[in-house]
Design goal:
The structure holds 2 protein chains of 2 kinds.
Chain A lengths: L8 H10 E7 L5 H4 L7 E5 L5 E6 L4 H18 L3 H14 L6 H16 L3 H13 L4 H6 L6
Antiparallel strand pairs in A: 2-3
Helix pairs in contact in A: 3-4, 3-5, 4-5, 5-6
Chain B lengths: L10 H11 L2 E7 L3
Classes of the chains: A alpha+beta, B alpha+beta.
Amino acid sequence: MDAVSYPNAKVIDFFSQYLAPVRVLISSTPLPQQFKVKWTPTFVILDSQGEEHHRSVGFLPPEEFIPSLTLGMAKTWFDHEQFSEALSHLDRLISEYPKSDVAPEAIYYRGVSRYKATNDASALKQAHETLQANYKDSEWAKRASVYRLL
Amino acid sequence: MAKSIQWLPDVDAAKKKAQEEQKYVLLDFFNPR
């Protein structure tokens, strides 16, 4: 991360705009034990109360790191049932990083967030159709496949 | 001077910044070796 992703200008700007970041030595105490971290790098996103909402293990290049963090931010709002805020992050992720590895998961969560915000089940079916059309080999296309029945 | 990530010293400082500036806390567990 220090050689590739952290010096990247887009990553630096993203951190400045959205994050309050802390580096934690894996050999330190008590955070690695508290969060049950066994391998590095591990990235954990917390809300301002310190509750975990997302984690990722392993190196990520900038074009995957930024969408992964954005998904974590969206999931923070999703967990708090603040769906419009979750959707703003998910829409940006899907628009700006459609080829990222987390784009299919973002489409899944966008469908669920739209459904939970409106109670309109067509949002789930639309997520299924988008995943089938553009990411049919992803695990999230499989997870959403049941919504074809709606 | 080139820009770089501004790391915070600890989780309490990060939570305080997150509350005051509506940001998200990121913990980066790392091994310097």
